[in-house]
Model the fold of this input.
Amino acid sequence: MVIGYVRVSGDKQDSDNQRFQLLKYANKKGLKIARWVDETISSRKGLEHRQLGQLLQELKPADILIVSEITRLGRSLFEIMEILNGIMKKGVVLHSLKEGYTLSDDINSKILAFAFC
Done:
C-alpha cells in the first residue's frame, strides 16, 4: 500500500502544498496513493498523540510511505532516527521528496539515514 503522510504544525498552515507535491511525485513514479494520513499537530507531541504513531504500528512489509521531507516525521534527531529505524526494520520503503531519499532495509539506506542525521 502507498501512504502519503502530510503534517503541518498549526491551524494557520495549509497541507495542500504538501499533498500536491506528494501526488506529483507519486504520479511521476507510477505510484497510486491509496491512503492519506493528514494531521495538524506539532511534532513536539509524542508519537502516542499523533496519527503518525498509529500509522507506524500499522505499516507492513512492502508498504511505501511518502513524505515531503524527513523533518515532517519528528522534531529531534533521535526521534527521526528511531522512526527511520522502525520503518526500515519493517521492510517499508520511505520516499522523502525534499531530500530525494528512497530508504529501505538495505545497508545503503541505513548509511544514508545515519549520514542525514
About this structure: The mean pLDDT is 88. Residues 14 and 30 are 26 Å apart (CA to CA). Residues 2-116 form a domain with the Rossmann fold fold (CATH 3.40.50.1390). DSSP finds four helices and five strands in the chain.
